[in-house]
Structure to design on (312 residues):
């Protein structure tokens, strides 16, 4: 059964829309983490296989939604729905951004720490243990508060907000980038130094190191981060779905690309493997993506065929 997104594009194309099968480049935002680079560049490569031109545009994970809603950017294959800011839900509600479906990744987000920290904070993994042993996570700059590395500033303030809501004695410190966060946690693990960090998976980091996740109170339904959490009633972080989204005019402008985008998917194993090649083995993103595309025609050929069928 065709989605409303794809069906609308075909209907407009069939009606002779002047914008159908545009020769303009499809603009895909590039965010701050390697997994998204992989999703975006595989998608872009397959658009090119289907005869479209593609332009990659650097954009912040939250600010990008204004550009997508306005049509300055066209598709985003990897939206972590629990870290989207204020613009995104309004744009989805108004119809300026269309949710096409899920990407296929199984995500987890929260606070991680190396297992050796449980010796210094015996109540872990419960978040309530952090009230009593914050100093075990302290740095000279934060003492007596613990130090919590959070996402880069333009990814939003979710960890900072939770720290404030539950009044936990930690100082949120924004990571400069994904790469800076990884360098810091690897350095800490190598020296068995204190570390508490907001992080996510899928990610190659979990293939090479063991980390534990801080555990929260069970939520009554979904965890709603804005609901005024407190000690004894803290669900932590809403777990995301990872969605594919597009500007409202994408399906009518590029109906073939819309069909491909709807079919497109990536799983954790694929993304973790490719991230490891790039981030750990130091290979160029473009080479890794080209190698995957060459080796996986059986996977993506039906998606490109769907694009060709929609154009004809």
């Amino acid at each position: 059964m065709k989605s409303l997104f794809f069906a609308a594009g075909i209907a407009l194309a069939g009606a002779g829309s002047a914008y159908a099968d545009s020769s303009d480049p499809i603009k895909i935002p590039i965010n701050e983490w390697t997994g998204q680079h992989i999703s975006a560049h595989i998608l872009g490569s397959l658009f090119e296989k289907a005869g479209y031109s593609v332009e990659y545009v650097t954009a912040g994970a939250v600010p990008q939604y204004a550009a997508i809603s306005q049509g300055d950017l066209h598709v985003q294959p990897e939206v972590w729905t629990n870290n989207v800011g204020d613009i995104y839900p309004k744009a989805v509600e108004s119809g300026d951004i269309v949710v096409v479906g899920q990407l296929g990744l199984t995500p987890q987000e929260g606070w991680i720490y190396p297992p050796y920290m449980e010796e210094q904070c015996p109540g872990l993994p419960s978040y309530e243990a952090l009230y009593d042993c914050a100093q075990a996570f302290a740095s000279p700059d934060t003492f007596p508060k613990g130090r919590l590395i959070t996402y880069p500033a333009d990814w939003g303030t979710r960890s900072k907000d939770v720290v404030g809501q539950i009044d936990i004695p930690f100082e949120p410190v924004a990571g400069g980038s994904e790469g800076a966060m990884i360098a810091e946690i690897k350095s800490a693990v190598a020296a068995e130094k204190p570390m508490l960090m907001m992080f996510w998976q899928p990610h190659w980091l979990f293939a090479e190191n063991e980390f534990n996740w801080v555990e929260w109170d069970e939520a009554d339904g979904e965890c709603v981060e804005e609901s005024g959490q407190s000690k004894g009633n803290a669900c932590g972080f809403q777990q995301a779905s990872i969605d594919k989204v597009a500007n409202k005019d994408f399906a009518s402008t590029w109906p073939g690309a819309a069909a491909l985008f709807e079919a497109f998917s990536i799983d954790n194993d694929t993304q973790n493997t490719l991230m490891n090649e790039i981030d750990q083995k130091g290979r160029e993103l473009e080479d890794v993506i080209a190698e995957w595309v060459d080796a996986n025609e059986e996977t993506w050929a039906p998606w490109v065929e769907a694009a060709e069928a929609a154009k004809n």
